[in-house]
Design a protein that fits this description.
Layout: E1 11-15, H1 16-19, E2 20-24, H2 30-36, E3 38-44, E4 53-57, E5 66-70, E6 77-80, E7 85-86, E8 90-95, H3 101-118, H4 128-131, E9 135-139, H5 148-172, H6 184-202, E10 210-214, E11 219-223, E12 240-243, E13 252-256, E14 269-273, E15 278-282, E16 287-288, E17 292-297, H7 304-316, H8 318-324, H9 330-335, E18 338-342, H10 351-380
Parallel strand pairs: 3-7, 12-16
Antiparallel strand pairs: 1-9, 2-8, 3-4, 5-6, 5-8, 10-18, 11-17, 12-13, 14-15, 14-17
């Protein structure tokens, strides 16, 4: 299955109240539910995990197919597919449009991002009054209308990417899952994404001495010579990646024929799309679209494995960047940010440890997967 590249160039701000009926839920004490007994209907609370569910009971007060918002603490948003009951401080957003599950999940992602931007907390609640003042940016289609199809496809592709990661673990553990069919280039990109994701999950388990460094000590940022995709000839056999602000396929929209040296960007670097603040290692020279920048090392030890280590750290911090950075000030804000790194006894970055960490992940996780993939390719041939 070949992944689609999802791109939308136009977004527009909408008032949340124009899209949803914003109201409260009927409060049901948990003691009442316990007296009624366990059942199939979720009990939604203000907790920020498990979709807000704190048990299942044989009782409901609210119809499903809506979004719920915690108005007590963090303002977390969840999609509630089933009928449910609720605790105190659970607000409900009922759509004024035909909302599928995938579109609902798209909205939860946007609303959970905006909660970070607004900084909701115990002393700044995401109440009905606050929600009615909120605006949300949505993609538009070529007719200038809300692009519902883009939302659907975006979530479908995200699920597909997540399933690929799950398949890695199933395959390596002998679970027998079938690997989705990739082209060689897609598979190479997928392996890099997998390594970055695994590294992000395991960084906290890396036992070593850590030190703090300002990013400006290690990297410099350059603006990219940006061109619209219409300037290029796309060809699946072309050598040059065209990097955009998409979070899919390592940020690569596609592969293009050579254009010129003026707009070509040096590889063996880290590229970032400024809308999602997502970082990718670019091994080869590439071209780029709007709202992208490239990060170059100031140290000679830089290579692919060390780049993947830093990319994992940068992506782990992307939520902070989304909340605190202004796109036009990215270079200034990014370079003054401090990050924690493994250090040597003389308190310098331990590049050797970073490289061995990534190499070990590749050996443990991706080399068996590559062998499995090659076996599949041979079998098909």
């Amino acid at each position: 299955m070949k992944s689609k590249v999802l791109v939308t160039s136009n977004w527009k701000e909408f008032k949340l109240e124009d899209l949803f009926e914003i109201g409260g839920s009927k409060t049901t004490p948990k003691k009442t539910l316990e007296e009624i007994g366990n059942g199939n209907y979720p009990y939604i609370t203000t907790q920020a995990t498990e979709n807000g569910v704190a048990g299942y009971y044989n009782f409901y007060t609210e119809k499903g197919g809506c979004l719920t918002i915690d108005s007590a603490v963090l303002g977390v948003c969840f999609y509630q597919e089933s009928d449910f009951s609720a605790s105190d401080h659970v607000e409900i957003l009922r759509p004024k449009f035909n909302m599928s599950k995938n579109i609902a999940l798209f909205f939860t992602i946007l609303l959970n991002r905006t909660k970070n931007i607004f900084g909701y907390a115990y002393d700044k609640k995401r109440s009905q009054t606050a929600l009615k003042k909120e605006y949300i940016n949505l993609p538009l289609n070529s007719k200038g209308e809300i692009d519902w199809q883009f939302m659907e496809e975006s979530i479908k592709q995200t699920k597909h990417e997540m399933q690929n990661i799950i398949n890695i673990y199933k395959i390596l553990s002998g679970g027998g899952a079938k690997l989705v069919v990739f082209s060689p280039k897609e598979f190479k990109d997928f392996i890099q994404r997998a390594i970055i994701q695994i590294a992000q999950n395991l960084l906290d388990n890396l036992e070593c001495e850590w030190g703090e460094f300002e990013i400006s000590e290690l990297f410099k940022v350059k603006s990219n010579p940006q061109l619209n995709k219409n300037n290029f000839i796309f060809n699946k056999n072309a050598k040059h990646p065209y990097f955009t602000r998409t979070v899919y396929n390592n940020g690569i929209f596609g592969y293009v024929e050579y254009l010129d040296e003026k707009h070509k960007i040096q590889g063996n670097s880290i590229a970032v799309g400024l809308i999602a603040m997502h970082f990718f290692y670019m091994e080869k020279d590439f071209y780029a679209g709007q709202f992208t920048k490239t990060i170059y090392p100031k140290f000679i030890e830089f290579n692919k494995n060390i780049a993947l280590f830093f990319t994992s750290i940068f992506n782990t911090n992307s939520k902070v960047y989304l909340k605190e950075f202004i796109v036009r000030d990215f270079e200034k804000d990014f370079l003054k940010t401090k990050i924690s790194l493994p250090i040597t006894p003389d308190k310098k970055p331990n590049f050797s440890l970073m490289e061995s960490f990534i190499k070990n992940l590749e050996q443990l996780h991706t080399e068996p997967l590559i062998r499995y993939y090659k076996t599949l390719q041979t079998t098909r041939a």
